[in-house]
Predict the 3D structure of the following.
Amino acid sequence: MIKASVIGATGYTGVELVRLLDKHEQVELKYLTSQTYEGQEYASVYPNLAGYCTKECVAGDISKIVAESDVIFVALPHGHAVEVAKKADAQGKKLIDLGADFRFDDGAIYEKWYKVAHGDHELLSKSVYGLPEINRAEIKEASIIGNPGCYPTSVILGLAPALQHKLIEPNSIIIDAKSGVSGAGRKLALTSHFVEVNENINAYGVGNHRHTPEIEQELGKLAGESLTVSFTPHLVPMTRGILSTIYATLKGNWTTAEVRKIFQDFYHDEPFVHLLPEGQWPHTKWVYGSNNCHLNLLVDPRTNRLIITSAIDNLIKGAAGQAVQNMNLLFDLPETTGLLVPGMVP
Amino acid sequence: MIKASVIGATGYTGVELVRLLDKHEQVELKYLTSQTYEGQEYASVYPNLAGYCTKECVAGDISKIVAESDVIFVALPHGHAVEVAKKADAQGKKLIDLGADFRFDDGAIYEKWYKVAHGDHELLSKSVYGLPEINRAEIKEASIIGNPGCYPTSVILGLAPALQHKLIEPNSIIIDAKSGVSGAGRKLALTSHFVEVNENINAYGVGNHRHTPEIEQELGKLAGESLTVSFTPHLVPMTRGILSTIYATLKGNWTTAEVRKIFQDFYHDEPFVHLLPEGQWPHTKWVYGSNNCHLNLLVDPRTNRLIITSAIDNLIKGAAGQAVQNMNLLFDLPETTGLLVPGMVP
Amino acid sequence: MIKASVIGATGYTGVELVRLLDKHEQVELKYLTSQTYEGQEYASVYPNLAGYCTKECVAGDISKIVAESDVIFVALPHGHAVEVAKKADAQGKKLIDLGADFRFDDGAIYEKWYKVAHGDHELLSKSVYGLPEINRAEIKEASIIGNPGCYPTSVILGLAPALQHKLIEPNSIIIDAKSGVSGAGRKLALTSHFVEVNENINAYGVGNHRHTPEIEQELGKLAGESLTVSFTPHLVPMTRGILSTIYATLKGNWTTAEVRKIFQDFYHDEPFVHLLPEGQWPHTKWVYGSNNCHLNLLVDPRTNRLIITSAIDNLIKGAAGQAVQNMNLLFDLPETTGLLVPGMVP
Amino acid sequence: MIKASVIGATGYTGVELVRLLDKHEQVELKYLTSQTYEGQEYASVYPNLAGYCTKECVAGDISKIVAESDVIFVALPHGHAVEVAKKADAQGKKLIDLGADFRFDDGAIYEKWYKVAHGDHELLSKSVYGLPEINRAEIKEASIIGNPGCYPTSVILGLAPALQHKLIEPNSIIIDAKSGVSGAGRKLALTSHFVEVNENINAYGVGNHRHTPEIEQELGKLAGESLTVSFTPHLVPMTRGILSTIYATLKGNWTTAEVRKIFQDFYHDEPFVHLLPEGQWPHTKWVYGSNNCHLNLLVDPRTNRLIITSAIDNLIKGAAGQAVQNMNLLFDLPETTGLLVPGMVP
């Protein structure tokens, strides 16, 4: 059994990790930390787990937790994972960071967009960007995983085959993304207040959202050249789900059928990525509660653009589920262990 | 492996059955019938199952389906299960009806409230009301299960300990119930049209909802005397979940602690029924996607009334999950097989 | 023109007052106070008013505000209106408190349920409970109005004809109420966090909600005897609207038609209270954005109970609209001035 | 008083027209037609209007209705307005079509995208595209108004200043639009079924939505050259509101401040179009229930793109409100009559 601990277990990605790990047949939940709820039963904070999880929330004696765990999931806001990672690295333990601290190859880019010092640029060289469909081999050998952001996951999976096959102009990419409110976390804010969000949609972070450099870094690697994208996120009155609608200019003449073939081949063996039948555009509801990514695409001959939509559950494939998928890879388990659950409809 | 078929597989209780049975380790899905979608892939109707369920929808050659199945789930509107049940009975197969046709001891009551002929009153004597927490022993021996209605499930579980212990005046019971829209099914209707339901709540079926006689039948058995209740359902702008708020006058003087003790003892060994800590009132979200029923209660000394709230997921404990629980009992499997999933929060 | 100021103008009842008063043909908006947004344009806080309201938020120099206003609306949490009312009283100005400080005849009951000292019990004798349909004559002569709570408004309008005609047993009344989230205000709280509220319903304040004594006080006056009620509020995933479902045992034999006749006569001349046609149960959506109260009722002969449902917009008839209605009465304007707007459907 | 009739009065644009016209001080509602509800009181179909609208639904004796009306609003699906318009034209009456039949200069384009014969191409020459901010002068002289589609209204208002000032490359325009469900009307469909829409977002009509040629026609006129756009609509789980996010490549170097100045000048005298302060991105909730259009924009120097978001209430500025604005112009009334209502927040 893999002994797993979650640092920051009472946020929304935290509870999703707990729910997934609790039923994972190869995992023993070790420590769940929470500053706010220290000493309280975890199920009193999340009563959905009454009768399932009997752990208590503990304070963060990180050294002890690392020592007694095989893998540490860090589900804290950015800027807090490096200290944990140093300890894990020193003790030879695996660390999966669900924040942004280990997603960048270049610490300077992180510091520019996140406006905090990184703390340990060298550790970055030991970390891998944890998108299994792209970096599977590297992930297996890594000790620190930078678990991808929710938006970047949906975008990179949507564009990878097109970029790798050089179908599109790299600098023509426009990403219009829509997210449910759980992506903003459990922290109280007027922008997550029910009355402000309900019966409303709005763009936010236009031109400056922090997932932009992460998207550009990974798409650039797939394209084989650096590129710049427009990325505009929107807040949708729903709890879970991200839909990214992606526009790019085609380099030559392609038919929808030809591009579909390239995508089908690319994702042929992937258990979690599904190209839907032609004309059936992804609904976030169809991936609700699952680790799946649903894709569809169209070549629009009027504009010679490729249009792709990509749907994930932001808390699962966009966070906790992908983290478990990475853990499975790190520990040589079948990659789908504990994750083969379809979306819940209705 | 139990060979299971679902008659009427493309409604909302149908797809929930398919989702639960598909991952049930002791079940082989045999036939999924649909009049509307005959010949189409099931996953084209419910794309959440793309990559999971590879069955096709078939027309209803009931005799063949019964012959090749060990258990038949009927997920049709009321009035259509009797014909299937006759065939199942003749061939010695188990049948679980998720409609109302086998919920009543007295066919005349069914006919009065549902305004259709029953078709075979005798078969009723071979059927059992499938609420495991109350009728476990009888269910194990039955061949036909009348799977309880969603509202009655929440109400009976909420009141059983109080009635059995004769804490309350039977004729004082008032049930104010609130349901998500999936309870109304996938059939198109203005009352399920998004724009009419969103940002709205209303009562419906006041004084004449068909779940009333079902509730009265089962509560009457628990009370040991016939009784009459007020039952008022409401439509809430959400997909899943039922919350029943139940009021009853206490017969004597009881404290909240004393009544809690009685409920705790009553449900002590039940895997799916949880009395929450004092003051933590059930949220339907906490049982979302699970087979759980969450309860809480209060003795209000000002009015000498017992107030209980009871939350279930109407599609799981209120329909498909309970049907699987009944199947487990019918086939001597551990009762929780395939059902030990906590609610999904957030 | 009536010079009107709003103390606490940036909460949800505050902005609703501003919206209604801004278009009221007999009102000049004078001061809008806000601690949080002092010095900012009101329309920067509520951009829906861009192009409509050009006022700035000011700090609360109450004496000056009172001196320069004819009527002061207090839209603060309870416990803060008494100090303003003293100043208004001293200067002979009208005050309408949308909080609880002037709703009670007996200051001791206020202090028991609200757990703060009242500050000036004598002022209570100068205030009137501002429900125009019940207290119209007294309101016209008053200087301080205790604007009713949202739940009590829906309940008292629902029960007044039945109690005044002594149709029902006073102590048999059970009120099961459902509210949208705006009733909890703009203050950040986990219980108003989108992700916690969406796709959920729950009871709260069971047995101890502060609107209980207000309801009992006013219903007791209508009944001509003191009484005790069960009152259970619920939180519904919508922004606006309250639906109260009310149960009471009839004293004698009545038909639905007879009771309807009593209600129709009682509300015959009321512009804002509508008894819907038999069988058409109120939807909160139908009163959304209006000062209307929609009612319907049924005599259930099986239980000899009267069942009433009552729908209002909690921010309008349950708060700001009713306050404007009271202002109209205080200043001898036609009672409906600025309020004859139907509900917005869809 | 202007005598106004509504053909097809019980759909969602119909009821919005009725609500706006009913309170319009210069309008007398004459006939409300409905095939489904002929002979029923209008307020029984839309109970929000109980106590406000006392009209009955009538069948469509179009000749009589036209004869007795000064203006006829047609709120029918496309393909049904031409017959009414012929009669109105013959009798010299004004007609405002809320469908697509009079939006196109070239009947052939209509027929290609809508796949029906138009019926009278000549009448098109007598009609004007009814977007007052662009075509005010022509509207005043017209007899037939093609009231703009909801999506096109949001898009054209968002782009007009940029195109007229030749700031952007015409063929670089990408429009990612998001709409509430009321845009799909009251007609029952699985895609408007609550359970399918709630907690979901999806694209639809990708590459082939019928508003595309309408957008291209009007943007082309503003640009002074024909152009092609990418237009992708999405369905959002809310009732009202459209948000269009628009991307276009700038022709030269512009700052946000410079482009803001151009927009401010362009809309300086417009009562319904508001450019919000820099950084405050439009929320559809802020225009809910109003005839307003809220805009904001950003020049992104990283990509040299102009990003604009534009929010309207699809039923008001996107349909009924704009129709009333057009009527005001046709009858030389102040353009804002009956429409100066701010958005309803919360």
